[in-house]
Design a protein that fits this description.
Length: 222
């Protein structure tokens, strides 16, 4: 009596994970949350002089718009971080949705974190921010310049999303003697924020086709 053993297709079994890996990587690339872009529309600093005097109070207001680059206006797992170099800083940050007031954040200190779920809406909604900040110009700055406002987007691991940093700074100087004139206000420029990189629909279709083709080739070789 002869017993025939069917050989185990170990080569096919070992090659099968390659196709699974291709599909997994493609799905991960398509589903990974992209960073939004927070674009400053209006920045107002008072006093308006080109040089801010040490020890004087400063008021800053900013209006910003959130431009999505993914499936929602902002990733729920990300965080929007605000910071300032002003001592005794007081914040009021208002989230606006379709022009209406949403969440309102009041904080004291040099840093404020805004959870992503407060900014996460369908892309059909218009989400923005109204930022109010009050503080004092610190004395004896080493570089004679102070960061009034800075924001950046942090991913789920706490790392800064590339291209999300925005900063407003001013030069500082010693307090003017009594009776001296205030410098004339000048036009100041702000760092430009690049528009988000959007993937058009044909590109997404092409990427899916390439993923399916790679998976099919891997299955044929298995």
């Amino acid at each position: 009596m002869k017993i025939y053993l069917t050989p185990f297709p170990y080569q096919r079994f070992m090659r099968l994970p390659a196709a699974i890996l291709v599909i997994s990587l493609c799905l991960l690339a398509l589903s990974s949350p992209a960073g939004a872009t927070v674009v400053a529309r209006d920045i107002l600093v008072e006093p308006t002089g080109v040089i801010l005097e040490a020890g004087n109070p400063v008021n800053l207001t900013a209006i910003a718009e959130i431009i999505p680059s993914g499936a929602s206006t902002f990733s729920e797992s990300h965080t929007l971080s605000f910071s300032t170099g002003l001592p005794n800083a007081r914040w009021e940050i208002v989230v606006t949705v379709d022009g209406r007031q949403g969440a309102v954040i009041h904080r004291d200190g040099r840093r404020v974190f805004l959870n992503g779920y407060l900014l996460s809406y369908p892309t059909t909604r218009d989400v923005g921010l109204v930022i109010g900040l009050r503080g004092e110009i610190p004395p004896n700055l080493p570089d004679e310049r102070v960061i009034l406002l800075e924001w950046e987007e942090l991913n789920a691991g706490g790392q800064v999303v590339t291209g999300s940093v925005y900063q407003v700074s001013r030069a500082t100087g010693p307090a003017s003697p009594a009776g001296s004139s205030t410098p004339e206000p000048t036009i100041t420029t702000y760092p430009s924020v690049s528009a988000p990189t959007e993937v058009p629909f044909p590109m997404i279709s092409l990427l899916l086709a390439l993923c399916l083709f790679s998976a099919r080739v891997a299955f044929r070789k298995s």
